[in-house]
Write a structure and sequence with these properties.
0% strand, mainly alpha, 6 helices, globular, 96 residues
Length: 96
C-alpha cells in the first residue's frame, strides 16, 4: 500500500496539468466532503482555509490529492485527480 501511495504521489508531482474544475467538484463532493466534515466539522471546507496553510503550491496540492485518494481507496485515475486539483485550486487556493 505504501508503495502504491508513493507511486501515486510521484505521478501527481509530474501531472500538475490543467483539469476540469466542474468534473473535479463532482468527484470532490462525492469522495472528500464526508471525511473532511467528520474531521473539521461543518461542510469540511475549513481544511482548505485553515491557518497556517499546509498546502503552499500547486504541486503540493496535487500530492495531497493523490495521497488522500490512495488512502481512501477512491480509485481515481490520474485525470480524476487533476480535475479535483483544478477544482480545489479554483475554489480555494488560487495558485498560478
Amino acid at each position: 500500500m505504501r508503495l502504491l501511495a508513493l507511486s501515486l504521489l510521484a505521478l501527481a508531482t509530474s501531472a500538475v496539468a490543467a483539469g476540469d474544475p466542474k468534473v473535479g467538484k463532482v468527484l470532490h463532493d462525492k469522495q472528500c466532503v464526508t471525511c473532511h466534515a467528520r474531521q473539521f466539522g461543518g461542510d469540511g471546507s475549513s481544511i482548505y482555509t485553515r491557518s497556517p496553510r499546509l498546502i503552499n503550491d500547486k504541486r503540493a496540492l496535487a500530492q495531497r490529492v493523490a495521497m488522500c485518494a490512495a488512502l481512501t481507496g477512491a480509485k481515481w485515475f490520474p485525470e480524476d485527480e487533476e480535475n479535483v486539483v483544478a477544482y480545489l485550486n479554483e475554489q480555494f487556493y488560487k495558485f498560478k
